[in-house]
Amino acid sequence: MRLRKFRVRAYRCIHDSGEIKVGDLAAFVGRNESGKTTILQALTLLNKEERVSDLDLCDEMTEELKSEMIIVDGQFDLIPTETKIIKEKFPHIPDILTLRIFRTNKHPRVQYDFGNVRLSNEQNRTLNSWENYTEKILNFISTIPNHIRIQLDTNFLEGPSSDRATYIREMTEFNNNLQMLASDESQILVEWAKFYKNVENTYDELLVGTTEKTALENFILEYLHPRFVYFSDYKKIYGNINLDEYIKEIKRPEGLEYAEEFDKAETVRNLFYLAELDTEKLEEYKNSPPKLIKLLNVASRRLTDRLNPAWKGDPIHVDLRYNPGNIMSVVISDVHRDGTVTNTGLLSRRAEGFKWTFSFIVNFAAETQKAELKEAILLLDEPARNLHPAQQMGISDLLKNLAGSNQVLYATHSPFMIFDYTPGNLLVVELDKRRHLSKIYYDYWNADDATLIPILYGLSRGLVESIVDREIGTNSRPVIIVETMSDAMYLNAFDKFLEDPNISMNPLNVVAAFSKNSVLPLAIFYRNHGHNVFVILDNTTESKKIAEYLKANEFTDLQIIYLERGGKQIESVEDLILPEDYLHAVNQTYEIKLRKEGYRNLTKEEVSSRNKRGIIEDLRAVWTEHREDGWNEFDVEEIARYVCEKIALKEADFLTDKTKDQFRTLFRLLAERIRLQQNITAQVGITKYQKSKPK
User: Which of these, 267, 332, 272, 278, lies nearest to 303 by C-alpha position?
Assistant: First the structure.
């Protein structure tokens, strides 16, 4: 079965999640304490053996919980095989394609709803059920002469259905006893043979329940009920394993409490599971070196083959070695592309990150490769925590493979663990701090910006590819790197605003650096991957240092453009806008705040009287003087948004021709530099900076 919708209510911090659609490989993204783990754990309540604890019920919904309430509710699609199995057992029932499973706070068992499929609740004597079958046997036994009947034990037929092995054993004992007691009653034995014939097949065909509905529910509960398997954390594997301690640990009776973390013994068990290494066989062969060496070599090869698909980077080889003292050593080697093997040594000597990654992949691969997890619903809480992005991509491949035979729902903070941006395959969880309630967004783009950060970084992977793919770079327009987001906003807006076909880049290919100190590496990355790069800089001390570093990394003077106006250096792109024009935007943006302080409008004279370098520094000085009045910091980007929005809406009449001319001059300078640099590049080429692609 595949979960298609679910709803959680009155469970821990969740009042009501609402109806949430999920795909076969769905990620839950949210900040810490938002409720991601709670959602995954709530879904485990749909397992048939789970129970709802009063401690897990929402304290703030005490009144609602006095009556029966559905705590978790799942809508499932049946796979064709499951529909066929039900049809074979219940031929008169219409095909069941969907199923609703839910659990309430009052009923101990999970419950089923078959939607529009009508099922009878009337007693049905014709059902091939355990109850009807045993009733027929008891009716037959009641006809046996009393002196024989009183010596027969029929208790096993009078209770609920036992397991298969117990039933066959008890039926065999009953048959042997009856054969002996009724040896002279051939008619009794003939009649009894009708019940005992093919006893094993008979049990397999029996249903449980006296009505059509209960029989179907019990059949699904026993054979088709979906399984939710929850993974949270794993402990590390170390270089040496004391087999005596391990065997003692795995024989220890299990405690009553559920432990979220796998203990050390479970981790070692997973290692041996992947290697298909039998500890009893190991004990048997330890005094026979040839057999022991062969056993360990085969186990090591299996272990290596099963780990490498999820291991990114150079492959590794895992070698299991038996040492005196009944110690098993885990030895790791790096296997390089040319076939050489280096860095052979105990796992315990590797870096902590390597050990954690290795242990995680062992545990996760083992647990998910076990046969009983086929067609399960896997719930993974932070499956990539502490992993390097390259290793996270390895886990992502593993998850995608699992999603073929299982459904995978997982919680993550990492942009590298988001593969599908389809609603239902990507869900956002947010916490309402005032009411301490979790809310799940199916339309995740409506969530809070801070929550969306991992998603936005993931969505931007295409930009990263545009940097690192040298073929894209060679065939793309020149890249213009600017120091701030407001620089990019102004350049793009004025490029469209001027509508000058002689200078427009249709449109400009502007990349805003995250901060000034990211300009240099960003320019180098783009240049080294085939792009023709230009950098526009302010005239600050920090910007001039950036220019020096760029030249030291073989950028030419043509590629470095300082902002200027009328042949004089200016501090920022805002100085290309006439002060009166810029102050119009400032006065409109801060209109309410300025009026509260007694200003009708800030004038050019009032601002320029601060005698700073450029209009931005003058305005910052004004804002600093009024910090105690609650003016906070002057927001350069807020003014840029205002100007660019007015340009987009064609409402920028406040921008004078002088301002347009000054931007037009910048664009002409940029176009000229691009032309000259392209001529040089055509002669020299830029391949010397490009790294060859890995084969």
Answer: 272
Long-range residue pairs from 181-189, CB within 8 A, at least 24 positions apart, any chain = 181/148, 181/151, 181/152, 182/144, 182/148, 185/144, 185/145, 185/148, 188/144, 188/148
Cis peptide before 507 (omega within 30 of 0): yes
Lowest mean pLDDT of 169-173, 502-506, 605-609, name the range.
Answer: 502-506
What the block records as the tokens of 223 is 């054979």
In degrees, rounded to 5, the angle at the alpha carbon of residue 666 between the alpha carbons of residues 665 and 669 is 85
Q: How far apart are CA 338 and CA 315, in angstroms?
A: 11
R_g of the chain computed on alpha carbons:
36
Residues 6+ apart with CB under 8 A from 661: none
Dist. CA 32–CA 385, nearest whole Å: 13
Tokens of 229: 């398997």
Instruction: Give per-residue pLDDT as tens, 114-154.
Output: 998 888 888 787 778 888 888 889 999 999 999 899 999 88
Helix 264-275, helix 289-307: angle, nearest 10: 100
Which residue did the predictor score with more confidence, 303 or 683? 303
Q: Show the beta-strand stretches assigned E in 228-296.
A: 228-231, 240-242
How far from 517 is each of 330, 520, 534, 546, 572, CA to CA, in Å? 44, 7, 16, 8, 16
Tally of CB atoms within 10 A around 574: 22
Q: From CA 462, how far away is CA 600, in angstroms rounded?
A: 47
Give residue-wise pLDDT tens across range 280-328. Answer: 888 889 889 899 999 999 999 999 988 887 676 678 999 999 988 889 9
Dihedral of CA atoms 612, 615, 619, 622 in degrees, nearest 10, equals 40
Closest CA to 659 of 493, 482, 484, 485: 493
Mean pLDDT on 554-566: 92
| Beta-bridge partners for 440 | 429
User: How many whole angstroms separate alpha carbon 271 and alpha carbon 650?
Assistant: 66
- Beta strand 98-104 pairing with 70-77: antiparallel
What is the per-residue pLDDT for 600?
72
Relative to beta strand 426-432, strand 437-441 is antiparallel
pLDDT at 690 over 60: no
pLDDT the model gives residue 32: 83
Please report the sign of the dihedral spanned by the C-alpha atoms of residue 283, residue 284, residue 290, residue 296.
negative
